[in-house]
């Protein structure tokens, strides 16, 4: 064995290349750091989906009280079981069952540290099946790609169709799947697209997945945040056609992403998943991660019980108004257009026409210059797998939204080619 020379150590661990897939956070940090250090203007964040700090979006006081009560009860100072506290799992099962044609039980629920850990648990379980591949939407939520790379799970992308309300391109889906494909992901209501899928489209997805012999991972982080013509329909409704893993979280509907509480629900009323042992793998993986803070779990039954209150109506109305403001303002901007109005979630995808612009070659450069010149942050589509597009978050304080969009407009005007 070669021993390192003390004066000249050769560290075995060397820096390797970073993963080429950047998370949304990394891209946003890049934008924020792109401007001069001397510039002290506060950024207007149209880049990420966390409105919790804005007064208009603060969660209902009863939710905060539920946490305080849980802490003060002294009943939640211990470790929780790996799968989550039983009353918490039962409450999540009840909450989800209200929208399903069958009932989930606490056995169908795993409690996770936010929605992102739900993604991690499911993808790392699938990575345990060698040769498996999964299908992700494009554009999508890059945390899926980042996680899949991390756990060595092969993935492929099917397209979403902007001209059809960002529905799944079923042909593209079918052409990608092969005998090793085990699952597909949908995000509904959509991040980044603001789509809300109709009952018919979800049914079509379920039938296609059944035909392909794959199950569906339905990311419903924005569940119930729908304000267009279509109601939110959970994918679990089609659980008898195709097994569904539903991923959920308190982060978005309750605007409390800091509380780090999510779940994986297995909707498999026909028992199709039993022999695959995939649920055992999920449970196995869950044991590897640390689970959410026990007192937050303890507050969940009360928080979910309150899920139909005034807060939610006001919240969805506010999102709807913000989406309208955003679309109306974007329409006034020549180099940007919006092929599909958002009907849910907190985002809209808009197309950037760079050839109208003087000194901007692509969406990334657009966002860098926008951050630098106007202190406005917008997410480049490149970060989401769709070059030439931008994702705008409209879930921010309405006065700031107006200001940010006015700056976006001024920026575009200033960079438009003189004809
Ligand atoms: C925010 C989000 C999640 C999970 O969020 P957590 O903050 O980890 O609860 C999952 N999927 C999508 C599409 C999201 O936007």
UniProtKB/TrEMBL annotation:
GO MF, any single term: L-tyrosine-2-oxoglutarate transaminase activity
NCBIfam families: tyr_nico_aTase (TIGR01265)
Keywords of this entry: Pyridoxal phosphate
Zinc-finger found in the keyword field: no
Nucleotidyltransferase among keywords: no
Name listed for the protein in its UniProt record: Aminotransferase class I/classII large domain-containing protein
Cofactor (UniProt): pyridoxal 5'-phosphate
InterPro entries in the record: Aminotransferase_I/II_large, PyrdxlP-dep_Trfase, PyrdxlP-dep_Trfase_major, PyrdxlP-dep_Trfase_small, TyrNic_aminoTrfase
Organism (species): Stephania japonica
SUPFAM superfamilies: PLP-dependent transferases
A Gene Ontology BP annotation from the UniProt entry: L-tyrosine catabolic process
Modified residues annotated as N6-(pyridoxal phosphate)lysine in this record: 252
PANTHER family cross-referenced by the UniProt entry: TYROSINE AMINOTRANSFERASE (PTHR45744:SF11)
Domain of life: Eukaryota
Coiled-coil annotated spans: none
Domain Aminotransferase class I/classII large, residue spans: 43-407
Family: Belongs to the class-I pyridoxal-phosphate-dependent aminotransferase family.
